[in-house]
Design a protein that fits this description.
Helices cover 32% and strands 19% of the residues. It has 14 helices and 14 strands. The strands form two sheets. The protein has an eight-stranded mixed beta sheet, with helices on both faces. Strands 3, 4, 5, 6, 7 and 8 form a six-stranded antiparallel beta sheet that branches.
């Protein structure tokens, strides 16, 4: 039986209209007190408010009711790929995002540098968010200490801040399995977990991961803060249907973090260079403006609405929304035929983590009905004409509003 992606492939058509999809990472939130305001509702957003008053709004569940999505499944869902069918580990996304070529049988792993206390208790899963320069210094130490394990070459790469990537290279045609449990407990106050294989083909990889963890801790034992490593998101080489083939779009990605560039690259988007450090909003608007004539679809990723939520900083998360609001007129000045705003998941400051709560979704274009929602907030979006949608509905709705889908059936 065909899935929605197959149906859309058969209906999509090439036109001159342009679509911009802005993903405000982790933008959904929660009030700190019962019946209070979320970060979005607290933020002062005159430009978003004006846009919402002229748009269609709704809420999106990225995977399903009550299921907390990771960033990978969340973005795949927004791109129209069923995250229950198209599965990829974060390791491959990060590796591809920083330009690492993965070969058949290799396994890429996403790592966090962490702070371990007495008895290896995890005190900080992100080691205080070290600078990129400190990350490079620590990676150099690990490269010198762990060039290989049991004859398997080990490659270690800086991603950003506390994030790094390890690639275990397959040898002599013997593929390494990637079906392994996490080392990262995703909470503090406990010890890192031991990687366990979930199938026989992954037993060797699990042993390599556990050996790496032990050797890394020995290498970093004198570091005051970055003295441990946590792993999750194991992945071999993934394959996806081409975004261009499915949607007939010439698509570009504008993002700073390697994982999102990796995901866009895997589905076939061109990844555009962005000037500035980390979540440089001005650099992203510049990249959008300079490349406007070359593409008909832009995926524009905004990260700090997520990381401030993970840090539990309610006020700063609201401020990051306000900073985006200030730059929204520059996007609108380009006059995209359709502008979509959405999150890839919620990251409430109250929870310091991703959550299952639906995220607000906005479509601005010339073919919508009257919509009573007046702000881009969770509560206002609930009033909108788009209703509660699956994440995989986002791309077909953007395509339809851009008049890029033919009729289905006679």
């Amino acid at each position: 039986m065909s899935d929605l992606l197959d149906v859309v492939r058969g209906l999509s058509k090439k036109t001159d209209s342009k679509i911009v999809l802005v993903v405000l990472d982790g933008v959904g939130g929660l009030p700190l007190e019962l019946n209070g305001e979320t970060e979005l509702a607290t933020a002062r957003t005159p430009n978003l408010d004006a846009l919402a008053a002229e748009s269609q709004l709704g809420l999106v569940e990225l995977v399903g009711a009550g299921i907390t999505p990771g960033s990978g499944p969340g973005h795949l869902s927004l791109f129209g790929y069923d995250p229950l069918k198209y599965v990829v580990g974060r390791g491959a996304l990060s590796a591809v995002g920083i330009g690492v070529k993965l070969n058949a049988g290799d396994v890429a792993v996403r790592g966090n540098f962490a702070t371990l206390g007495t008895d290896r208790i995890v005190d900080d899963r992100r080691a205080g968010r070290p600078t990129d320069e400190k990350n490079v210094e620590i990676v150099a130490k690990l490269k010198a200490a762990i060039p290989s394990i049991d004859g398997i070459p080990v490659e270690i790469y800086t991603e950003s801040e506390h994030r790094f990537v390890v690639v275990f290279r397959a040898q002599n045609g013997e593929a390494l399995g990637a079906n392994i449990g996490d080392v990262d407990p995703q909470v503090t106050g406990v010890q890192p977990m031991t990687a366990t294989a979930h199938d026989p083909a992954s037993e060797k990889t699990a042993a390599l991961v556990n050996a790496f963890v032990g050797q890394a801790e020995a290498t970093l034992k004198d570091e005051p803060q970055v003295n441990g490593v946590l792993f999750r998101g194991y992945s071999d080489v993934p394959h996806f249907p081409s975004f261009a083939d499915v949607y007939k779009l010439n698509a570009a990605c504008i993002a700073s973090y390697p994982m999102y560039k990796g995901l866009a690259s895997l589905v076939g988007m061109d990844v555009l260079p962005v000037e500035g450090h980390e979540d440089a909003l001005e650099g992203k608007i510049q990249a959008l403006t300079e490349n406007w004539a070359r593409y008909d679809f832009f995926f524009l990723h905004i990260k700090k609405t997520d990381s401030t939520g993970e840090d539990g900083n309610f006020t700063e998360k609201a401020h990051k929304v306000e900073l985006f609001d200030e730059l929204l007129p520059a996007i609108l000045a380009l006059k995209p035929d359709v502008l979509g705003l959405v999150g890839d998941h919620s990251t409430p400051s109250k929870l310091l983590s991703h959550s299952w709560h639906p995220v607000p979704f906005l479509i601005h274009g010339g073919h919508g009905r009257f919509d009573p929602a007046q702000r881009f907030t969770e509560t206002e979006a609930l009033k909108g004409t788009l209703g509660l949608r699956r994440g995989t509905d986002v791309m077909p709705l953007l395509m339809a509003n851009a008049l890029k889908l033919n009729k289905y059936g006679a």
